[in-house]
Amino acid sequence: MLDVDEFRFERALKDAREHGISLAVSNPCFEVWLLLHRADLRTPFPTAKDVLVRLRSQLPHYEKSGLRFADFEDHVVDAITRARSLPGAEQVLGPNPTSGVWRVIQAVLPA
User: Fold this and answer.
1) Which parts of the chain have pLDDT scores under 70?
2) What is the pTM of this model?
């Protein structure tokens, strides 16, 4: 998985394409995927920090280094549905906000 705010992002995209590696990109950051568990998103975020502020308005205790699956597990299907409905959801790098993490999660969920 890659965040758009990652250093050397363009290089990672190029290397992945050259080696046949599929990517799950969140734009502008991974927290978009987490926020999709709780809310519909349509408006672009100016920065990744703004996504974090919005997520913390939903989950005040959220910390990047202490992700608690229990905060999100009951809303995984909602997050997949919301992510798939975003413009550019089928692209590797969709517009802000998008997250391709749904493809990874859907691939591992039981049928």
Assistant:
1) 1-8
2) 0.86
